[in-house]
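Can't attach files on this board, so I'm pasting raw text. These are the components:
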Amino acid sequence: MVVINDRSRDLGPFMPADDDGLIICRCEEITKGEIRRAVHDGMFNLHEVRRFLRCGMGLCQGQTCGRLVRSIVARELGTPIAQIDEATARAPMRPIEMSVFAKEVEDV
Amino acid sequence: MSATTADVIIIGAGAIGSAAAYNLTKKGLSVIVLERSGYIGNGGSSRNGGGVRQSGRDPRELPLAMYGVKNLWPSLSEELGMDVEYYQRGNLRLGKTEEHLRILRGLTQNANECGLDVRMIDAAEAREICPYLSGEVIGASWCPTDGHANPMLVTLAFYRAARRNGARFITGCEVTAIQKSRGRARRVVSSTGEIFEADSVVLVAGYDSNAVLASLGFFVPMSPLLMEVLVTEEMPPMFYQMLGTAMADFYGHQSSHGSFVFGGSSGYEAYNRNNGTPVSSSITAPSMCRAVLGYFPALSEAKIVRTWAGWIDECADHVPVIGLTDEVPGFVFGCAFSGHGFGISPVAGMLLAELAAGETTTLDVSAFAYDRFKAKI
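---
Top answer:
Structure tokens for the assembled complex are below.
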């Protein structure tokens, strides 16, 4: 999905909130306030927020927090959640040891 | 600057496009950056191994890499106001056989001839630098001034700083043509028919640059080459050198976060399922695991958390096209970085900004001219 997106759009000033200290990404310990600030810093979608803060880049790869991050970004931008792409799912589905992954062929 | 007019339009919001935008805003020029995808740095900028490497560079490209390592990388985090995770801990290129050492000696000699400090070291010295090496390693080449940084953070840091300085970034805006006015590049047309205007137009769109170049009658001989990477879980700090091997079977480093990031290949990179999205193939990550474990058995229990792939805009002669052309004044080339663009992104951004601003460039870019490609006979 591509929505024409003016990155200079005025989001208004950043307003601190009582629940900014809430941890949203448990793997990387990223708070709601950090995610909201990243949006004000120009990170307008899950891909950029992820690359900027590392939320969703830990052991669970965002399988736990992805939806929450998406809704926080949408709300901060004032756009419907459907306009925010989900993060890309990447192989492997579960963390796999290098020694196990390496055995895709025999005689290793 | 109006909504659609600026001093300079940059096509492509990757690391180099964003760096050029940042440099132009510092000169006081107005900038519009147009990006086809919905995301900043969606191409090679967020899909590369993060090497800030001078060793192994083409002699034409080496002055750019050396300038960056000396003048731009050390202060980049400070300059851009956020940590871009730059490490200057050297580059080890490892060998296990006499044949490997012969290759490494050749690379070392080439680097020395270009004035770069690279030397051969024995197994004991290599192990002193990195104690986790397999016992099979018998020697290495060592470039102490090489390093790595986080490509996603570098790209976003340039974007963030340029945006704060007033550069206008528009994502989801696919450029289909550049049009001339009185012989100069002037109008930039989007797929939705929107027209942007500027005194200079910089094209930094990776492999997709050719689609836009066609509107000016230009073509750069490059092809999309798949590169694949795997990322481990967070590991305790082990070693922060940039790593590679004589046979180039893998390369990588440990990031600030603790993950190892390793790139490698299966041998089928030229034949990929190009459906518009770079896709990891199921045989490549295991191949990379075998390559890495052959040199770093200590990582056998490290868990892979994700794999990803990206396109390299591989130029026919493996160095970029950077510069102006008499054929279309006001147009600036910046493409075909051939998979080594990230390490020179701050330098390339500086040079493209100088070209767009009509200034003399800090470094000579004549070796990167668009008209260097000649027929074989």
